[in-house]
Predict the 3D structure of the following.
Amino acid sequence: MKPHPSDSSEHRSAEARILAAVAKKLGVEVKPQRVDLPGGTYVAVDGVAEQPHTFVEVYAHQGLLKGGHVHKVAQDVLKLITLGRAHPDARLVLAFADADAAAHVSSAGWLAEAVSTWGVEVIVVELPDDVRAAIWSAQYRQVMVTSDERTEIGRLFRSKLASLREERAPRRPRRRTVRLPAEQPVDDALLRSGELAALLGVSLRTLGRWDLPCLRTRGGQRRFRWGEVRARLERERTQRHV
């Protein structure tokens, strides 16, 4: 499966370089490792050193952090704080390869205060210009893909919305093509819905859609005076032939 641009090979390669630079700076040997937590769960850590005990999270993003990037760094900070609570003697390190990206956790704001309060070190390492350029290129592709995805989602949403509106739009009522029976009741006869439907040869459901003059009983039942119904149907039939 092709990886999403947000998990590009450029980012993974840069993170390996950052981790190696941090290890050299701290004088320890670090490697990715799964660390068990006291509650029975575990976390995957970008870099772990046993002697001295060190946990490192790496972020290769270039430039200021926005939106989901901030959430990702906040998760890394929370991960390090959790590891620090389980291992009070451990050194906690959050490593960047860009000063602008690191500014979000080293200047003002609650995330910067959390980093300071819980003793998380922020380290910025230098990467070669060609590596930085490759990361910028990958980030640009990510933005373009995200934009295209949003455009496609928006198009599908508008298409579905238009379809739903069309389905809900009131349909033009069909013209009634009713042939009056040869034998008819007297004009003053009051007919129930079932009696009138049978007389006209239509279903109760069809009759319910027709706007016919009627009376209401105390119980809310409809009663149709045959003379009024016949006059309405004859008038509509005459209008259709005009």
